[in-house]
Write a structure and sequence with these properties.
This protein is mainly alpha-helical and 335 residues long. It is 79% helix and 0% strand. It is built from 13 helices and no strands.
Amino acid sequence: MDLDVFVTAHRAEWDRLDTLLRHRRKLSGAEVDELVALYQRTATHLSLIQSTAPDPQLTGRLTNLVARARSAVTGTRRASWRDVTHFLTRGFPAAVYRARHWWVPTALLSTVLAAVIGWWIGTHPEVQSSIAAPDELREMTRPGGEYETYYSSHPAASFAAQVWTNNAQAAAMCLVLGAFLCFPVLWILFQNMLNLGVGAGLMSSAGRLNTFLGLVLPHGLLELTAVFVAAGTGLRLGWTLIDPGTRSRRIALAEEGRAALGMAIGLALVLFVSGAIEGFVTPSGLPTWARITIGIAAELAFLAYVYVLGGRATRTGETGDLDRTDRSASAPSAA
């Protein structure tokens, strides 16, 4: 191919495309059609030049031109505050509401498991002795011991940030690892309930269960609910691989995975609130009843948020997935 002849023959088209792109916000319908046609032809020209007579300068110019034209033709969508508002008032609460048949049973069974572990440890001295030496146990459970000073061991702001980071990572792992047939999620959940049960059992054996609950409940109600939501969603994601229903396994996993990704962002915000409570309220000088009341109020607010806003959004067709216009096109599948 004679490159000079080729450039002479098509330069006017490239210049015209460049002009249309620079004025694309004011184009008429006919000019938009012209832009699309020129974009397709220029993309073909670029392919021909790259394969037969590569010229760095010309290739660079046409690559830039084709990229700009592709952006203009296909459109680029930017996130806006409207998207944030939609996510917080409809998408996230709807996704949590839709997953309630998974995370509510998960919460109930996990709480029972933690209670059983706590009872077993609290009523069996031989189990306690296998955890730590008697002197170490007394140091942990005594007034002003490790269980109490843990919440005031660091400045409130840095402690809240550390707690939020750790809990957000645990929730994200539950959501992501759910795709591995549920088993990693069950293990993470068991570790959390084991830690809770051990603490309750040891403090109960020292006659200080009320103190333990007064320290855990203010932040623990909301924190554990977020973990249960993440675990239940992860389990549902894993079950989607086993039973995708009428959808293909690929489509089902993509839809549920996108909703789970959005939930990871939403739960990070929920855990930020619980982390702030744990950092500033739990170790504060407020009376126990006031600290627990704050924890209960935060928990009830979250449940109302999910069941009122989420339920309403779900009934109007919201699923927590991306809007249809933002999803990749997919071929229909037979039921």
